[in-house]
């Protein structure tokens, strides 16, 4: 029974139906047995009594016929006829004997049958004596035998046959009546037994359906009803059953636990919401003054400073950048913890990613006299993944290596591993720093963990970098690990799943210089005076006209009171007292006049949901505070280039002087040189560079005038590769490389075709150099003797 209770209801129903089937088969077998018994008894009755009665009647007729034959002998006239009668009597004797022999002896009839057999034998002996006497023509003797012996014997035999027939018929009638009574009793018993079995099956089915199905489901339904009313005190039974009812009970238990858990989560949702709002508020309140600090330091670094002043300002900038990294780590950790961080799948160039990472950390390595060795796997293809998060992991590992190293080399390895599981980008950072104890390695990737408390006191840090890196690698389908030996250094590695991209190379890092806008006016809306000042100074570098407003309502009023087309764009802060940036944007978009004006969010709210709110309100772009100049120029160019034709013409008129502005100059080589030299020395070298570029331009003009002067073209192109490369003029250096390669392969026609682009490229390079490094307010730069053809001349 216990085993049956552990079966599913379906199997239990199958067993019940099978049991009913067994009962039905039993009833059928019983009925069949009863019918077979009746049939057998009737067959016995027919085979014995009825058959005997028929045979006795047949024998009686044969005896009567034999008697008639014996009497007919006396009437025959010829001996032949008499012999014929003898023959017939003999044949009749044989038939009678056979008939008597076929009689089945029945209880009490055996003696009678034996006596009849003896009598019939005597009767035919007498019949033969009669025939013999008749043949000898002794009729008197034949009559004497006939009357005195044959006739009494025949009568006795007939009486015995009649007696035997009567007893057989009586027996047949008695047996038929007894068999009829037995049949009725058997049928009655079978019907009663069948009825009892059927009622038992119905009762068993009713008991099963009630106790095993209906009652449990009814109880579970009542519990479910109470759960919908948030009443959790009722116990849930049947949890141990292994059938469908047990499954329902366990599912209901899970539902109950889930509801209780959801209510607990709902109760804590306010705390989670408060946490998110707190992080957003902290981010905004820290980013707002940090925007002013970093903006002012960057603007200050663009002006001439003494070495001491520049060093101090750069330290302020690095401290602000470090604080920004801590804020970003906290926000990333919060997003990962809440499951809101999404991994992108975009195409990227691993070599370029390494260069960008190197630019981010090499200054820190240089300050500690550490050698940064970057070793990419040659021939790395274009990949598809999340380059920003991969860079974040690499920067975290490199920053740790720099932080905990006082000397030696730091090597960075990047390669592509391929296996049956797919493609994985493997990264490795190895240092020769202080190392980590083996037992401390296990805790390194936990949140807020460092090797020990003294590490935090000595080196600083939140302990979030490695934890975030671990979670990022897991989100990208990979893993991260480390090995270390105290005093000898550490090796941190990671691998993330990537896909192979197209064979096209990645786009080079865009370095966007301040564009030169003409007659464009921007309305800057921010409630913080320092933020307005920093943003205004940045925007003025692009020759933009700036108007400011302190609140969303003031911005609305200024735009309403101005003529159409007065402002080409609006830079709008979000969190302002009164009417905030989102409300101001929605109010402006409700007016037909301001449906098309570009509105760019400029805010410390950087979460994805905040960015989505900006676009939902009708804004065209988003700038995160602290403002990054590269992002500022990129957003302005993208946004303003998408406005009216008049605006496009004004932008084109000012940017056509230096096409492909993003690829012309990498300012880092000259910027490093500027930091290492006195201002006077740098200005002198800068002037020599401009003069050299102008001289090469003149010489190229002469070479182009004579197409056969390949030697002059080759010499100038070869020299410019070195000059441009050392100055960060990437576009010019690449063009000169193509020219020298064409000349080397004797493809002079292609070389001179490319050379036609050299002089415009040199002019654009000079203009961008002057724009980036020339300061009209500096007496030193004003005193420079600028080369002929420069915009400043």
Strand content: 5-15%
User: Main beta sheet, described?
Assistant: 7 strands, mixed
Number of strands: 12
User: Number of helical segments?
Assistant: 26
Q: Give the radius of gyration.
A: 60 Å
Descriptive notes:
The structure is a single chain. This protein has 793 residues and is α/β, with parallel strands linked by helices. It is 65% helix and 9% strand. It has 26 helices and 12 strands. The chain has helices spanning 2-5, 9-72, 79-101, 110-135, 139-228, 244-301, 307-338, 350-367, 387-403, 438-441, 453-459, 465-475, 529-540, 552-561, 581-589, 608-617, 629-640, 645-655, 661-664, 668-676, 679-705, 710-727, 730-744, 748-755, 758-773, 779-782; strands at residues 346-348, 371-376, 383-385, 409-419, 422-430, 479-485, 489-500, 521-525, 545-549, 569-572, 599-603, 621-624. Strands 1, 2, 3, 4, 5, 6 and 7 form a 7-stranded mixed sheet that branches. The chain has a 5-stranded parallel sheet with strand order 9-8-10-11-12, with helices on both faces. The longest helix has 90 residues, at 139-228. The protein is elongated, with a radius of gyration of 60 Å. The chain starts with a helix and ends in an 11-residue tail after the last helix. 27% of the residues are buried.
């Amino acid at each position: 029974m216990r085993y049956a209770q552990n079966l599913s209801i379906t199997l239990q129903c199958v067993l019940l139906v099978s049991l009913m089937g067994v009962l039905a088969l039993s009833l059928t077998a019983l009925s069949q047995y009863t019918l077979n018994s009746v049939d057998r008894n009737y067959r016995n009755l027919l085979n014995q009594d009825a058959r005997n009665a028929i045979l006795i009647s047949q024998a009686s007729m044969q005896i009567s016929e034999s008697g008639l034959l014996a009497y007919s002998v006396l009437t025959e006239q010829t001996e032949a006829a008499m012999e014929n009668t003898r023959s017939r009597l003999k044949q009749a004797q044989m038939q009678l004997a056979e008939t008597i022999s076929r009689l089945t002896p029945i209880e009490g009839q055996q003696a009678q049958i034996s006596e009849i057999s003896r009598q019939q034998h005597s009767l035919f002996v007498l019949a033969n004596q009669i025939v013999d006497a008749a043949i000898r023509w002794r009729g008197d003797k034949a009559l004497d035998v006939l009357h005195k012996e044959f006739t009494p014997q025949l009568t006795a035999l007939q009486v015995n046959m009649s007696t035997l027939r009567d007893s057989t018929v009586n027996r047949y009638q008695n047996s038929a009546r007894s068999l009829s009574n037995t049949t009725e009793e058997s049928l009655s018993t079978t019907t009663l037994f069948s009825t009892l079995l059927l009622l038992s099956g119905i009762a068993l089915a009713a008991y099963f359906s009630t106790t095993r199905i209906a009652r449990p489901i009814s109880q579970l339904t009542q519990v479910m009803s109470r759960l919908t009313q948030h009443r959790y005190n009722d116990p849930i039974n049947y949890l141990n059953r292994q059938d469908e009812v047990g499954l329902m009970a366990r599912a209901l238990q899970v539902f109950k636990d889930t509801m209780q858990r959801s209510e607990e989560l709902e109760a804590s949702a306010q705390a989670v919401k408060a946490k998110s709002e707190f992080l957003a508020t902290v981010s905004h309140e820290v980013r707002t003054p940090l925007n002013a600090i970093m903006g002012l330091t960057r603007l200050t670094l663009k002006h001439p400073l003494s070495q001491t002043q520049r060093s101090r300002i750069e330290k302020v900038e690095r401290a602000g950048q470090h604080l920004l990294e801590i804020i970003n780590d906290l926000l990333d950790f919060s997003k990962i913890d809440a499951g809101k961080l999404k991994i992108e799948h975009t195409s990227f160039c691993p070599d370029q990613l390494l260069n960008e990472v190197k630019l981010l950390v090499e200054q820190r390595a240089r300050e500690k006299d550490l050698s940064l060795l970057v070793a990419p796997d040659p021939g790395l293809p274009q990949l598809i993944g999340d380059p920003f998060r991969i860079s974040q992991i690499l920067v975290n590992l490199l920053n740790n290596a720099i932080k905990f190293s006082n000397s030696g080399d730091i090597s960075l390895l990047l390669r592509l591993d391929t296996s049956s599981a797919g493609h994985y980008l493997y990264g490795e950072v190895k240092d020769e720093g202080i190392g980590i104890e083996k037992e401390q390695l296990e805790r390194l990737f936990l949140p807020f963990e460092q090797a020990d408390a003294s590490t935090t006191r000595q080196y600083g840090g939140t302990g979030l970098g490695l934890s975030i890196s671990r979670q990022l690698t897991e989100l990208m389908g990979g893993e991260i690990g480390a090995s270390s030996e105290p005093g000898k250094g550490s090796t941190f590695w990671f691998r993330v799943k990537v896909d192979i991209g197209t064979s096209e190379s990645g786009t080079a890092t865009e370095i966007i210089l301040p564009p030169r806008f003409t007659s464009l006016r921007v309305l800057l809306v921010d409630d913080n005076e320092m933020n307005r000042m920093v943003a205004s100074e940045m925007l003025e570098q692009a020759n933009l006209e700036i108007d400011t407003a302190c609140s969303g309502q003031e911005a609305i009023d200024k735009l309403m009171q101005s003529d159409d087309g007065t402002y080409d764009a609006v830079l709008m802060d979000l969190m302002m007292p009164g009417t905030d940036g989102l409300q101001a944007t929605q109010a402006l978009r409700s007016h037909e006049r301001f449906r098309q004006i570009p509105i760019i969010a400029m805010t410390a709210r950087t979460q994805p949901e905040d960015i989505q709110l900006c676009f939902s309100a009708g804004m065209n772009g988003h700038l995160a505070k602290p403002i990054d100049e590269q992002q500022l120029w990129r957003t302005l160019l993208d946004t303003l280039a998408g406005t009216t034709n008049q605006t496009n013409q004004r932008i084109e008129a000012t940017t056509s002087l230096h096409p492909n502005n993003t690829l012309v100059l990498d300012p880092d080589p000259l910027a490093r040189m500027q930091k290492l030299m006195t201002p006077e020395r740098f200005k002198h070298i800068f002037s020599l560079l401009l003069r050299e570029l102008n001289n090469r331009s003149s010489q190229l003009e002469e070479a182009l005038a004579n197409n056969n002067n390949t030697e002059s073209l080759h010499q100038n192109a070869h020299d410019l590769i070195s000059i441009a490369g050392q100055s960060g003029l990437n576009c010019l250096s690449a063009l000169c490389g193509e020219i020298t390669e064409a000349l080397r392969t004797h493809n002079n026609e292609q070389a001179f075709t490319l050379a036609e682009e050299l002089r415009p490229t040199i002019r654009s390079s000079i203009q961008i150099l002057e724009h980036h490094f020339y300061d009209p307010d500096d007496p030193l730069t004003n005193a420079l003797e600028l080369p002929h053809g420069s915009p400043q001349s």
